[in-house]
Amino acid sequence: MTIDVSELDGDGGTRRQKALVLHPDIRGNDASRSAEALLAEGLALAMALPGIDVVRGQIVRLPKALPGRLFGSGKVEELKAQIEADEIELVLVDGRVTPVQQRNLEKDWGVKLLDRTGLILEIFADRARTREGVLQVELAALSYQRTRLVRAWTHLERQRGGLGFVGGPGETQIEADRRAIDVQMVRLRRQLDKVVRTRELHRAARRRVPYPVVALVGYTNAGKSTLFNHLTGADVMAKDMLFATLDPTMRAVTLPGGLSVILSDTVGFISELPTQLVAAFRATLEEVLEADLILHVRDISHPDTEAQAADVESILSDLGVGKDVPRIDVWNKIDLLPAEDPLQTVAARTDNVIAVSALTGQGLDDLVAAMGQALGDERRVETVAISHSEGKARAWAYAEGIVQSEEGTDDGPVLTVSWSAKQKRRFESMLTAVVAPPDDES
């Protein structure tokens, strides 16, 4: 199967490289999605990479992966003819390619080749904005490049160092380069440790507030950033593009019931996420590990929404996020479902599902109400008397917006408050002593 996407040209500005996307469909691979769906995702990844024009995408069916060149000799020659005819400069293989396979194919075709991991790393390198994001990408890229030195050096038989008659043949070029990468990785880890410690200080400050953290997670391009913008009024980059958001973005939001929460937009997940990135971005996803509530945002209009949801759950499990953290399934993009009654697809599923359109705002009131309920935002109106010395607790109550009225007495103010159980516990923890309200004395 071949998909011609040459009409999807860029902005016509600076010169762009022509790219070919190949999806190897290896017989016997247990894939939860069709080869056509996987090719479509590979094309979307390629189009997210700046500076290239994707000419076409093609499924290459293989009985097995060959260790030397991945493809058979006949297929290599056939693809070479296509590459030359279309003047392709970059081949993107949507799958795993070993260093030896990459080196041999680049030599045969005379073009640069990137596998799925290399492509995702290129996208991440272009999108990362925060200091931590940049460091995480550099560290992951070095870890990846360290295994690729075999393709970067064709003179591996050359050696340097040593006099030959004293201590042996000396150090090979590849060993020297690997050692240089190791030194650079150590330096990056030290810098990253400092950044992570700073983020931990910020998290510790938030714990003292404390606002509950609501984390948006989901497959890439599920609409998390659009939903985040709608709920917070922020202006996070929200495009119909894979990995539009890489760095964690956080905003404080006050729910209609008065509960203040911190909403966190996170990097989108994807199937076969490179191992280097799962490890490198663990710190970026720490907001999810500490979340009081997780909103699993799904593109319910996508034909592979079930497989995408399974991928997200698998990655959450790998990150150590347990089932004990409350979750709400947010079925997004219902505006793209058939017009007759899109909510019918939701009704028969589970009570823990909210159907929304982050683009139009449909269903967001129900989502906000579900968030408040999951976080214990059930309000009770109570009267509490405090002494004059409890100014800190009184100021906090006003800052939280829970005070409905105040009456002054000789012993201290009497506050009428509307609060959640969590806010009540927080307020009482700040008091040196709780004074019974006057009504209880009669």
Tell me about this structure.
Its main location: cytoplasm. It comes from Pararhodobacter zhoushanensis. Monomer. Associates with the 50S ribosomal subunit. It is found in: Cytoplasm. Belongs to the TRAFAC class OBG-HflX-like GTPase superfamily. HflX GTPase family. It contains 15 helices and 16 strands. The termini are far apart. The protein is elongated, with a radius of gyration of 28 Å. Helix content is 39%, strand content 20%. The strands form four sheets. It has a six-stranded mixed sheet with strand order 9-10-8-11-12-13, with helices on both faces. A five-stranded mixed sheet has the order 1-3-2-4-5, with helices on both faces. Strands 14-16-15 form a three-stranded antiparallel sheet. The protein has four domains: 123 residues, GTPase HflX, N-terminal domain (Rossmann fold, 3-Layer(aba) Sandwich), CATH 3.40.50.11060; 55 residues; 164 residues, Rossmann fold; 62 residues, Alpha-Beta Plaits (2-Layer Sandwich), CATH 3.30.70. Strand 9 and strand 10 form a beta hairpin. The longest helix has 36 residues. The protein has 442 residues and is α/β, with parallel strands linked by helices.
Give a brief rundown of this model.
Keywords: Cytoplasm, GTP-binding, Magnesium, Metal-binding, Nucleotide-binding. The protein has 15 helices and 16 strands.
Quaternary state, please? single chain
| CATH level-4 homologous superfamily of the largest domain | P-loop containing nucleotide triphosphate hydrolases
Beta content comes to 15-25%
Give the N-terminus to C-terminus distance in angstroms. Answer: 84 Å
Number of strands: 16
* CATH fold category name of the largest domain: Rossmann fold
User: What helical percentage do the residues reach?
Assistant: 25-40%
Largest sheet, strands/sense/barrel: 6 strands, mixed
Mean pLDDT metric: 78
* Number of structurally distinct domains: 4
Radius of gyration equals 28 Å
Adjacency order of strands in the biggest sheet: 9-10-8-11-12-13
The top level CATH class name of the largest domain: Alpha Beta
Instruction: Identify the overall geometry.
Output: elongated
**Low-confidence spans:** 6-12, 151-170, 434-442
CATH architecture of the largest domain: 3-Layer(aba) Sandwich
SS-derived structural category: alpha/beta
> How many H/I helical runs?
15
Subunit structure: Monomer. Associates with the 50S ribosomal subunit.
Subcellular location: Cytoplasm
InterPro entries: G_HFLX_dom, GTP-bd, GTP-bd_M, GTPase_HflX, GTPase_HflX_N, GTPase_HflX_N_sf, HflX_C, P-loop_NTPase
Family: Belongs to the TRAFAC class OBG-HflX-like GTPase superfamily. HflX GTPase family.
